[in-house]
Amino acid sequence: TIPDQGKLEHYESLGIAETVLRVPSVGRDEVLFRLDEHARFLG
User: Fold this and answer.
1) What does the alpha-carbon distance between residue 27 and residue 14 come to, in Å, rounded to a whole number?
2) 3 with 16: CB under 8 angstroms?
């Protein structure tokens, strides 16, 4: 599913410490855009 802060907080409340963010198999520009969007969840 598409990540959002609420989902990640829910997973954390369940004790989940790691998750995988999906990146589609598309062109370079779209992949870079998706990675930029996911960057806010990394830390």
Assistant:
1) 35
2) no
pTM equals: 0.64
CA distance 33 to 14: 30
Model confidence band, residue 16 (pLDDT cutoffs 50, 70, 90)? very high
Handedness of CA 23, 42, 19, 4 (dihedral sign): negative
CB neighbours of residue 37 within 10 Å: 13
Portion of the chain with pLDDT greater than 90, in percent: 56
Q: Where are the domains of the chain?
A: 5-41
